[in-house]
Specification:
Elements (H helix, E strand, L loop, with lengths): L5 H6 L5 E3 L6 E5 L4 E9 L2 E9 L5 H17 L1 H9 L4 H9 L7 H14 L13 H12 L2 E4 L5 E4 L2 H19 L27 H9 L4 H13 L3 H5 L10 E4 L8 E4 L2 H7 L33 H6 L10 H11 L10 H11 L5
Antiparallel strand pairs: 1-2, 2-3, 3-4, 5-6, 7-8
Helix pairs in contact: 4-5, 4-7, 5-7, 6-7, 9-11
Length: 363
């Protein structure tokens, strides 16, 4: 290999490649109309080629000087660091950055998103985001739509997938993509190729309210009884009720510093709520629903035949709740609880609290 000089550049024939004998990686590539200086080295198993300039616009000595500087950058690791900074992160790296955000909704939301990626999109985790395309999104959305038996993020065997799971997984992926897009040059998220499934809120109701009361009253543990009754009268999520502390409960409201959507929430309390909570104070625990030891909250309430979180159905069912209302008034409240009255854009907490204000459930 000769030393690259202006004479060598002048005599180089089309398609010739001249490699310098003194600076490893310094080369001249001759095309049909121009001759170009390059510096080329392998970084982390990948060939990296830097264009230095075109002969005629710069001479061989100037190109050599630039090649010397590039060789020093490679030797010090500067180029490798620059490449790492410019490389689009993998889904695993993007997920870690996303769930580390201080403004992410809540710990529950973090766990949900992390589980969705690790279980439903585990084959994508080591793939750079810019290599995930529309066809992959459409294909895996269709795959996730089919219910299947598998292991969740905790290794438990259960049924996975379904239309709702497919939608929510890909929407979480879209959120991660858009978060990375703030700092990296990425196009629009490839989930635009997805035909989203229509989703309706669950309409499960407790048809036999007397049976529900009988099941709750039959529980041996009074803490569990109070837990279910308090869910009935508040519409709280199970996790919110289990971790509720006495210092969050006031005369006219209870305070949730962080709900699932990432916002604080104050729920009005009335006499019916305090009647349920009063016996719990005897346990002298920091938590309203105390656990096995004073410092722990209730972990796993006893099962009953009906989900404690079907709060809308719990209140009225099919009009069979034992309340002091005539049927027409019960119908109005039932419509409010189902959200059918479009003039009342209330959340589940507000609808249930309004009902507790207006009537007494025979619980």
């Amino acid at each position: 290999m000769p030393k690259i000089t202006d004479t060598a550049c002048k005599n180089a024939q089309p398609d010739a490649k001249l490699w310098d004998s003194e600076i490893k990686g310094f080369a001249l590539f001759a095309g049909k109309t121009r001759k170009t200086f390059f510096f080329q080295r392998d970084v982390n198993g990948k060939t990296v080629r830097d264009k230095i300039g075109i002969w005629g616009e710069i001479n061989a000595a100037q190109a050599r000087t630039e090649a010397t500087l590039l060789a020093a950058d490679h030797a010090s690791g500067t180029v490798a660091k620059r490449l790492r900074a410019a490389r689009t992160p993998t889904l695993k790296e993007a997920l870690a950055a996303y769930i580390a955000r201080p403004k992410l909704r809540s710990n529950v939301n973090r766990e949900i998103v992390e589980g969705q990626m690790q279980v439903n999109l585990k084959d994508w985790l080591d793939t750079p985001l810019d290599q995930i395309d529309r066809a992959m999104c459409a294909r895996d959305h269709a795959r996730l739509t089919v219910p299947r038996e598998g292991k969740d993020v905790k290794g438990r065997t259960r049924m996975l997938g379904g239309e709702r799971a497919a939608n929510h997984t890909m929407k979480s992926f879209r959120s991660i993509w858009n978060h990375v897009r703030r700092t990296y040059d990425l196009p629009e998220c490839p989930t635009i190729s997805i035909e989203w499934h229509d989703e309706e809120p669950p309409k499960t109701v407790i048809e036999d309210f007397a049976g529900w009361k009988e099941a709750v009253n039959a529980l041996e543990n009074p803490v569990h009884q109070a837990f279910y009754r308090f869910l009935l009268f508040t519409g709280l999520r199970k996790s919110e009720a289990k971790t509720l502390r006495w210092d969050q409960v006031f005369d006219d409201h209870l305070h949730l510093p962080m709900t699932k959507n990432g916002r604080a929430f104050d729920l009005p309390l009335v006499g019916a709520h305090h009647d349920i909570l009063a016996p719990m104070k005897a346990y002298r625990s920091d938590f309203v629903s105390h656990g096995k030891r004073q410092a722990e909250h209730l972990a796993a309430p006893a099962d009953i035949p009906w989900s404690p979180h079907n709060n809308v159905g719990m209140m009225i069912g099919k009009g069979e709740v034992d309340v002091d209302l005539d049927w027409s008034e019960a119908q109005i409240i039932w419509q409010m609880l189902l959200g059918k009255d479009t003039s009342l854009q209330w959340g589940r907490h507000d609808r249930i609290t309004h009902h507790v204000y207006r009537c007494e459930l025979g619980v």
